[in-house]
Amino acid sequence: MNMDNGFFKNIEKKTGVNMQDIFDLANSLQHANFKDEKTVRGVIRKVSQLANKPVSKDLEDQIVSTIIKDGKSLDFNTISNMMNKK
Predict the structure, then answer these.
(1) Is residue 50 part of a domain?
(2) Is the torsion defined by CA of 55, 59, 65, 68 positive or negative?
């Protein structure tokens, strides 16, 4: 994927989120073990950091237990939706 693409530059300008970071995160999610609490916490923290939305310890615990219990594969939208439901 070409990072000089105007579309991605516009997203970066509007959101302040580096698209390369998003792609790196997406790639790491493809092979992540979502039954592993440490992995899940790492992903939540990374998404929180990228989205510039701090996640409280309680909310992080809730998200972790939901993901591990449900065993669902995780994507950016799932975490984002959970963070926005505060």
Answers:
(1) yes
(2) negative
Are residues 75 and 67 in contact, defined by beta-carbon separation less than 8 angstroms?
Answer: no
H helix count then E strand count, the chain: 5, 0
Q: Give pTM, 2 decimals.
A: 0.64
The residue with tokens 């989205």 is 51
- pLDDT tens string 8-60: 788 788 777 788 888 888 888 888 888 889 988 998 898 888 888 888 999 99
30-60 in b/e form (b: 16+ CB < 10 A) is eebebeeeebbbebbebbbebbeeebeeebb
Determine, yes or no, domain membership for 1: no
